[in-house]
Structures are given as structure tokens and as C-alpha cells.
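Input record, target 12 of the design panel.
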């Protein structure tokens, strides 16, 4: 049985109700399953709309079909923002079902996880894990690392990162990218992987063979432990240093 979500408040209008085509409404909170989500464009409260816009592009926005977007220019803008499907007001249920099926198939093709050295990146959780422990990345930090991981060993330009992560078609006069890269590096440094992301001419890259491999990465259970410095401190007994 095919599943879909409904993101707008209230009931589902008959013209958009895929249950009449044999689909089942997924009502569990969160994204336990990656299923197409439908939202009526003119019926989304501002607070919920802000939440939708804050979603990670690949993980969530690509799973959303916006319905009832009247203006062609507005439909184009929503597509540029990363939404999976954007349709006008007049759409028959057979076409809606076909588009929802295609959206679900496209979602199934997205790689849910990616490995970068000792790190495992989970797209749906928007988190990086070292030995099954999360790094507590900010969503933007995760998106940066995910995008850099697509070109492991190769450079990603600043303009490409701003386009793919910030959805900007121009280079702004701010240092937001550098700030987020710095924060990402700090969290990687805390687990012994500070050399993973390097600055290259025009952008950034994940080092193909970074210095801190799995063997030298600090387990997250110990990262930041104030007693860590005692583990490597030399022992002194009766005036003699024992390394």
C-alpha cells in the first residue's frame, strides 16, 4: 500500500485526497518513513511554512509536493527552492497520483547514508555519526559535509556550496559560509578529525586520505573528557619519568 503525508491543517480536499486512489495517510510524527508529502500552498500557516522552508533540501523538501500554486513565476521559485513537485490549482486525481508516485520513486533513489572516512552521514537524521555516536551537527553544517562528501577528494567551489546548500544564485557579501565551515571543523576537531575538511583555491574539499583516520579518531564517549589529558601524561615515580 502506498503512503502519503498531508502537511496542511484541516482535512484533505477531495480533489487532493489520494485515499480515493487506494493510498493510505501516514499520520505518525516525524519522518520514520520517507513518503511523499502534500501541502496546499495557500493553506499553510506562517509558522509551519517557516518550518518547511528550514527543512534540508535533499532529505525533506524534495519529498514535498506543493498544490494550488497559481502563479507560474511562483511555481518556478518553489522549484528553485528545492521542492519535489509544484502544481497549479487545476489537477485531476490521476495526474496527482502519477506525480506522487514519481516523487516517491525519486526519493527512493536518494542515498540515505554516506560514509566519509570513519564518519557515517545519515541523510534523514541530518546527522554524522562516529562509532554510532552523533556529532550534534547543525543542519547547515550537515548539509555542508554531505555536499563536500559528494566530491570526496575533489574541490567544491564557494559558489557551488552557496547554490546547493544556501540555495543562492549569487555570492553574498557575508562570511556565513566561512563561519559554518569553521564551526564544522571545530566539531570534527573535537573527535580527532579536524584535518578532514581543507581549504583549497576557490572553495573547500574533503581530503581523500586525511591525516586522522579511524585509528586516530577520538571516540565520542571520550571527546571533551577533562580527564583525557591525564591518560597521555607521563608518570613520575621517585624522580624518574616513565613514558
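The sequence produced for target 12 reads:
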Amino acid at each position: 500500500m502506498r503512503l502519503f503525508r498531508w502537511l496542511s491543517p484541516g482535512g484533505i480536499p477531495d480533489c487532493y485526497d489520494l485515499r480515493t486512489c487506494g493510498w493510505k495517510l501516514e499520520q505518525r510524527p516525524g519522518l520514520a518513513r520517507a513518503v511523499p508529502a502534500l501541502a496546499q500552498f495557500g493553506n499553510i500557516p506562517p509558522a509551519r511554512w517557516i518550518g518547511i522552508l528550514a527543512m534540508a533540501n535533499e532529505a525533506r523538501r524534495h519529498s514535498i509536493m506543493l498544490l494550488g500554486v497559481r502563479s507560474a513565476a511562483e511555481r518556478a521559485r518553489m522549484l528553485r527552492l528545492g521542492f519535489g513537485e509544484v502544481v497549479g490549482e487545476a489537477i485531476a486525481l490521476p495526474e496527482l497520483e502519477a506525480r506522487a508516485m514519481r516523487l516517491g520513486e525519486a526519493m527512493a533513489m536518494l542515498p540515505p547514508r554516506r560514509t566519509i572516512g570513519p564518519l557515517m552521514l545519515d541523510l534523514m537524521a541530518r546527522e554524522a555519526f562516529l562509532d554510532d555516536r552523533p556529532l550534534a551537527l547543525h543542519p547547515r553544517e550537515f548539509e555542508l559535509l554531505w555536499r563536500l562528501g559528494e566530491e570526496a577528494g575533489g574541490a567544491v567551489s564557494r559558489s557551488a556550496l552557496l547554490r546547493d546548500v544556501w540555495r543562492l544564485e549569487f555570492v553574498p557579501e557575508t562570511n556565513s559560509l566561512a563561519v559554518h565551515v569553521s564551526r564544522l571543523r571545530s566539531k570534527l576537531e573535537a573527535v580527532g578529525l579536524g584535518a578532514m575538511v581543507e581549504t583549497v583555491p576557490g572553495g573547500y574539499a574533503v581530503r581523500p586520505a586525511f591525516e586522522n583516520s579511524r585509528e586516530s579518531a577520538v571516540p565520542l564517549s571520550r571527546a571533551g573528557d577533562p580527564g583525557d589529558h591525564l591518560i597521555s601524561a607521563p608518570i613520575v615515580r621517585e624522580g624518574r619519568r616513565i613514558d
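The chain has seven helices and 14 strands.
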